[in-house]
Design a protein that fits this description.
TolC family protein, 8 strands, 444 residues, alpha+beta
């Protein structure tokens, strides 16, 4: 029975481990673009713009309608006619007009021949599709930026956790050595107690980092649209420091943020044109053909012999509408459109400034990060050497416990500083890549 339980436990453990998903940055980005709701909604907006174009195009196509009706008049309206018509001079006679039943069926057609608003609307609809296509690209780039930053933060926290685990194991070994020395009368009890406190503090710090890693992983899973309960792990050596992304100057005119604003400016221009189109006359063609049945009985399926008579009718016409005065409503709309255009132009200027500002800051941060990485890398090596020497000296009675603890703290601080410098570098690198408009290259 016990063997069966052990076998089952091993099987379940292997199954759980098999379900852990190793997630590279490229895979995380692809998963986000395929599953995150923001990316899906952006795609739906592009799809919906095709239907918006079809809706506007419909106004330029013939409009055909079929109407019908059946009317029963319990009391016919009477008109007062002079009696002379009926051979009764000097009298007024009330005569009913119409029939008790009336049934009609009419087919009508309307075709715009000239309507400036429709033509402008078609141009605006096509521009709207281009706007949503650019917006989809911007949404994907923003998602890539957000996921990349979160991914590197997860990796850095995982590295800090490994540092804490290694330091804990190292400190435990020193504590065990001191314990042995104390039991043999070669060390003081206070030294052993101090190391025990250090171990407890490191265990608490390790637990805090474990929780922090879990929080960062949950954030990453949320950003990419992955189930929160899906265990993930990141491959080793995720962060590499290279100068591939670095550039001294970048052209911001091809940035998606500016392209979107300029397309929005174009849409506002069409909006102004649509208001101006209200000054133009409109010309349309209309035609209809109908069939009518009148009688004392319900006309359907009835004949003249039943007192029901059927007749057809039709008409064709041109309809011209000349706008003359609408209380300056159109003028007010045009002036509002001009204000909106001025506002979007100011947004474009401010965005250009913000993009240059972000690039210069990212460039400075990257330079600082490279210097800091090199410095901290040397500090880690030096701190490790100091710790090894101090540990050896302490065992041989040539160094105090305080010196040993200081050496351990220095190594931990240097390792964490090195890891933080790597994160700062990668975040700056993302901004540089973003400034070049090449965020999607991270998918390659």
């Amino acid at each position: 029975m016990r063997n069966k339980i052990v076998i089952a436990f091993v099987f379940l453990t292997g199954l759980i481990q098999a379900q852990v998903k190793e997630l590279t940055l490229k895979e995380a980005l692809q998963f986000a673009l395929e599953n995150k709701s923001d990316a899906k909604k952006a795609k739906l907006q592009v799809e919906n713009s095709n239907h918006q174009i079809a809706e506007v195009r419909a106004q330029a196509l013939p409009q055909v309608n079929l109407t019908g009706g059946l009317t029963y008049n319990p009391i016919l309206q009477e008109s007062a006619l002079p009696g002379e018509i009926f051979g009764q001079p000097g009298t007024i006679i009330l005569v009913p007009f119409g029939q008790k039943w009336n049934s009609t069926a009419v087919a009508s057609l309307t075709q715009n021949l000239f309507n400036q608003s429709v033509f402008t609307g078609l141009q605006a609809a096509k521009t709207t599709r281009e706007f949503y296509a650019i917006n989809q690209q911007l949404t994907e780039e923003q998602l890539i930026e957000k996921v990349s930053s979160s991914y590197y933060q997860v990796y850095v926290y995982q590295q800090k956790l490994k540092i804490a685990e290694n330091n804990l194991e190292s400190t435990k070994k020193v504590r065990d050595i001191i314990k042995g020395q104390y039991e043999n009368g070669l060390a003081k009890k206070i030294d052993y107690d101090r190391m025990s406190v250090k171990v407890s503090n490191l265990e608490a710090a390790k637990q805090q980092l474990t929780n922090a890693v879990q929080l960062q992983e949950n954030t990453l899973k949320f950003f990419i649209g992955m189930a929160i309960d899906q265990p993930i792990k990141l491959p080793e050596n995720t962060i590499s420091v290279t100068a591939e992304a670095f550039t001294d100057k970048v052209e911001t005119s091809n940035r998606t943020e500016l392209a979107l604003l300029k397309k929005q400016e174009q849409l506002l221009t069409y909006q102004k044109k649509s208001y101006l189109a209200e000054y133009y006359p409109t010309l349309s063609l209309s035609a209809n053909y109908g069939y009518q049945g009148l009688g004392k009985e319900m006309p359907w399926f009835a004949k003249p012999a039943d007192g029901v008579y059927w007749t057809d009718f039709s008409s064709v016409g041109l309809n011209l509408k000349m706008p003359l005065f609408n209380g300056f409503s159109t003028r007010s709309k045009v002036r509002q459109a001009n204000i909106n255009l001025q506002k979007i132009q100011e947004d474009i200027k401010d965005t250009e400034l913000a993009l240059n500002y972000g690039f210069e800051n990212a460039k400075t941060q990257m330079n600082n990060s490279i210097i800091n990485i090199n410095t901290q890398e040397q500090n880690v090596k030096l701190a490790q050497q100091v710790l090894d020497n101090t540990k050896n000296n302490y065992i041989n009675g040539l160094a105090s416990l305080t010196e040993l603890l200081d050496a351990e703290n220095s190594l931990t601080e240097s390792q964490n500083n090195y890891t933080s410098a790597q994160l700062e570098y990668k975040l700056a690198e993302i901004q540089i890549i973003k400034s070049k408009g090449e965020l999607k290259n991270l998918l390659k």
